[in-house]
Structure formats: structure tokens, C-alpha cells
Write a structure and sequence with these properties.
Blueprint (H helix, E strand, L loop, with lengths): L1 E8 L2 E7 L3 H13 L3 E12 L5 H9 L7 H4 L6 E9 L2 E4 L4 E2 L12 E5 L4 E11 L10 E7 L4 E7 L5 H22 L2
Antiparallel strand pairs: 1-2, 2-10, 3-8, 4-6, 4-8, 5-7, 9-10
Helix pairs in contact: 1-4
């Protein structure tokens, strides 16, 4: 196997792989999409919500917000939970950067993401628990996307991160997950 034409820019990575079949390329693509662990908000406790959006819509919106992920730290505990808090009053547009966190390694990737617009009489107070998961469980844990094209003598591969990891980390984490799965199959078939 040989990597050529390696380029990276703005959370995207492209490279050509020689000496690999379409099955392996597709396995890497599927691993990036569904098996790379990432942090995402799973539970939201509302203490006050006088905004125009109901609790379920706000919880869904928060769940889809990409969060930075320190995979090594998250894997040290099976019950790794990070609580993010928000306590704001209008009039204002509330942004992701206004959420405080119990662990600085887990915070919104894009702080300028608008969460909601509050009028002068509206308030929002909540606590949100972020946990580690994978895209196979729910799209909110999907760390990126990937695709490939086949030509005569190589596979052109593309991957883009949603921000939880750099593009290189996304591919490296996918390769590690893939090798772990192969090792698990080998162990079970002995």
C-alpha cells in the first residue's frame, strides 16, 4: 500500500492510495462515518425556558452541536460525562461560546454558533450532559464524513472533520478503530 498526493486544508484531507482494493477503501470510509468516537450532548435538564422554542427542540439543537473531544481522556472512564451549563437572559442572541463546562477539554467547537434568540423578557437556564458515542448510535456523534473515487491504479480518498478532531486525527482514529475491530475478529476466531 502506498499513499500519494497527500493534501490537507481547512479540516479536509485528500490522498491517493495505491495497492488497496475497493473493500478496504469502503471500510475506512464507513469507519470514519460511524465508528470514530466523539462527545455530544445526550441529556438536557431545563431549569428555566421562557423562550419561543420548546425544550425538545432546544435539546435536539444542542445535541447536534459539535464538541471538542479528547479521546484519550474520555476513554479513561466508562462513565465519562461532562456537564455544560447555560444561564442567560434576553434581549440577545445566545451563542455556543456562552456555555460553561465542567471540563475544558469538552466545549463547543464553533463558539459563534447561535443557539437561540431571546427577547427582553425571556430566560434560559439549563444543564447538558455530554457523553462519548459513535455515529453508528446517532448522527450527533458522527465526527466527519468521507468518500472515495476509484481510478485505474489507485483510490482517491477524501475526509472532512466536523471539528471534534483535526482531519489527520480523524483518519488516524478511524484506522485505530478499524485495526481494533480486525484484532477482535482475529481473537474470536482462534
Amino acid at each position: 500500500m502506498e499513499l500519494t498526493s497527500f493534501t490537507k486544508k481547512d479540516g479536509r484531507i485528500r490522498f491517493n492510495i495505491k495497492g488497496v482494493d475497493v473493500g478496504m477503501a469502503n471500510a475506512l470510509r464507513r469507519t470514519i462515518i460511524s465508528q470514530v468516537p466523539a462527545m455530544a450532548i445526550e441529556k438536557v435538564r431545563f431549569h428555566k425556558n421562557s423562550s419561543i422554542l420548546n425544550n425538545e427542540i432546544l435539546a435536539h439543537r444542542l445535541g447536534l452541536m459539535p464538541l471538542t473531544t479528547d479521546l484519550a481522556k474520555a476513554r479513561k472512564s466508562k462513565e465519562y460525562v461532562v456537564t455544560l451549563k447555560l444561564d442567560v437572559a434576553g434581549p440577545k442572541t445566545v451563542h455556543a461560546s456562552e456555555m460553561t463546562t465542567s471540563d475544558d477539554s469538552v466545549k463547543p467547537v464553533y463558539g459563534d454558533t447561535p443557539i437561540i434568540k431571546l427577547t427582553e423578557t425571556q430566560k434560559l437556564k439549563l444543564e447538558a450532559d455530554a457523553v462519548l458515542g459513535t455515529g453508528a448510535d446517532h448522527i450527533k456523534w458522527q465526527a466527519g464524513l468521507a468518500s472515495y473515487e476509484i481510478s485505474k491504479n489507485h483510490v482517491s480518498f477524501f475526509a472532512e472533520t466536523y471539528g471534534q478532531y483535526s482531519a489527520e486525527e480523524l483518519v488516524k482514529n478511524a484506522l485505530k478503530e478499524f485495526s481494533d475491530k480486525i484484532r477482535e475478529v482475529e481473537e474470536k476466531t482462534k
